[in-house]
Amino acid sequence: MTHPAGPPTGAPAVCVRHPDRPTGLACTRCGRPSCPECLREAAVGYQCVDCVHQGQQGVRRATTVAGAVPGSRPLVVPALVVLNLLVFAVTAAQAGNISTNSRSTLFVEWALSPGTVAAGEWWRTITSGFLHIGPVHLAFNMFALWVIGRDMEGLLGRGRFLAVYLLGMLGGAAAVMLLYGPGEYVAGASGAVFGLMGGLAVALVRLKRPLNQVGGLLVVNLALGFFVPGISWQAHVGGMIAGAAATAVLVYAPPARRAPLQAGGLAAIAAVLVVVIAAGAVLAGT
């Protein structure tokens, strides 16, 4: 005699994930029978692990105004600090003295001057941003990078933060190319650091936070560039403008089209800076 398929009438239900386990429990979301091992406590009743997984996939993760996932550990800032320290160590070792490291071969080959860029040495617009003249110059810039950079990296995310940093550096180089003489030299991460300062000011405005401390810091440091010999106010101003513009692109981009607008905006800023640097090279070469 044959029997119909399925359990006989009145047989207990079995767990959908474990057919060998009879159960009287069921998921409050899908209604399928589930054993205690396959149920998770929910806001109302208990849900099976499949429904819990589906619910987690449907929940959007919180992001900052720039689209970054909050809570990420800063990695770019420490890497930049280490890179600057290593470059300084090489220049100091070549010069045989930390105070006269600007006499080293690497410093001479990497420092920025409009005349050398006009001669085709374009790499100096970036490499000069990793050079420092003596330990005090290095300490000031690295301290500012560490304090401001960690907050900015958390707000923007690693890739966006690095873009703002490099565009600030390029902005400082562009200003130097336009406003320095062909034979004048400049070096330091100040353009990039001022880019972060300008970016932080823009971010605070976007977040509707007070600008008191950041505004005062910007004013004081910009003033030092005008009144203290040996400080490049040109690089400071250029970096600040570029960094502020880049950050504005990132924090004001509408969430619905955030990625393409951010990428396009940053690319446009980079293109403008390259054109300015090229124009400065033409002027320096004439």
UniProtKB/TrEMBL annotation:
One Gene Ontology molecular-function label: peptidase activity
Lineage: Bacteria, Bacillati, Actinomycetota, Actinomycetes, Pseudonocardiales
Annotated family: Belongs to the peptidase S54 family.
Domain of life: Bacteria
Name of the protein in its database record: Rhomboid family intramembrane serine protease
Organism, scientific name: Pseudonocardia oceani
Transmembrane segments: 75-93, 129-149, 161-180, 186-207, 214-231, 237-253, 265-284
Pfam families to which the protein is assigned, alphabetical: Rhomboid
Any one biological process term the GO annotation gives: proteolysis
Signal sequence annotation: none
Assigned keywords, A-Z: Hydrolase, Membrane, Protease, Transmembrane, Transmembrane helix
Domain Peptidase S54 rhomboid stretches: 120-251
